Amino acid sequence: MCKDTISVFQFMEIFPNEGKAIEWFESKRWANGVSCPSCGDNQITSLKRDHFYKCKGCGLNFTVRTNTVMHRSHIPAHKWLYAMYSLVTARKGISSLQLSKEMGITQKSAWGLLHKLREACGSNDPLLGNVVEIDETYIGGKEKNKHAKNKQNKGRGAVGKQGVMGIRERDGSVSAFTIPNSSRATLHAGVYNNVTAGATFYTDEFRSYIGLTADYTHETVCHSIGEFVRGMAHTNGIESVWALLKRGFNGVYHKMSFKHLDRYLKEFTFRLNEGNVKAHTMDRLDAMASGMFGKRVTIKNLVG
Question: Is residue 1 part of a domain?
Answer without folding.
Answer: no
